[in-house]
Specification:
Oligomer: single chain
Number of strands: 5
Strand order of the largest sheet: 1-4-5
Strand content: 5-15%
Order of helices and strands: HEEEHEHEH
Helix content: 25-40%
Distance between the termini: 24 Å
Radius of gyration: 19 Å
Length: 180
């Protein structure tokens, strides 16, 4: 936790910083990014139900529910920011330079590519660089796991993530280099 002595971690990261392009830290039980030691900050925002309509109204009778009114891409982006990115501004209240944002949906998205492009434009306007949209084949486990090594040889798995990886590499390459 933030009050613990983190100097061993800081020393370990400093000793390996020249060996890797990017150091990403996934802190256990933290609800905010490691602002001190990571060399890049990329958010993976998980989407439960994609916000493409406003709230639904429960109605009496056999149908029981009325479909909501469609949201604009800008409204949808605002809902996603509110729902998924609150931890960026959580405790401690320190500024963070966010290199990019990847959205992951657990299932197919109910909107088309033009709609997603509108969401991306609004995220960019808000200062959150969109890097891509990923579809998860299954609900993620409570413990984030890296893919099995054999899975990385499966072209159908790897090809889905190549455009996102390319955009991430471009975003990271565009950063100004400042090492101390």
């Amino acid at each position: 936790m933030p009050r613990t002595d983190r100097s061993p971690l800081t020393a370990a990261v400093a000793s390996f910083v020249d060996a890797y392009d990017v150091i990403v830290l996934l802190p256990k039980c933290w609800s905010y990014p490691d602002r001190e030691n990571a060399t890049a900050h990329v958010v993976l925002g998980e989407i439960g139900i994609f916000p493409h309509t406003d709230c639904r109204t429960a109605l009496p009778g056999p149908r029981g529910e009325e479909a909501g009114v469609p949201l604009s891409p800008e409204q949808s982006a605002a809902v996603l920011r509110e729902r998924c990115l609150g931890f960026l501004f959580g405790s401690p209240h320190l500024p963070i330079h966010l290199d990019g944002l990847i959205w992951q949906s657990n299932g197919e998205l109910p909107v088309d590519e033009d709609y997603l492009a509108g969401v991306d434009r609004d995220m960019n306007r808000a200062g959150l660089r969109p890097l891509g949209w990923a579809i998860s084949e299954r609900w993620p486990s409570p413990h984030r796991e890296l893919p099995e090594p054999g899975r990385l040889k499966d072209l159908s798995f790897v090809q889905r993530y190549q455009p996102i990886a390319g955009r991430l590499r471009t975003a990271l390459d565009a950063r100004s280099v400042c090492r101390t």
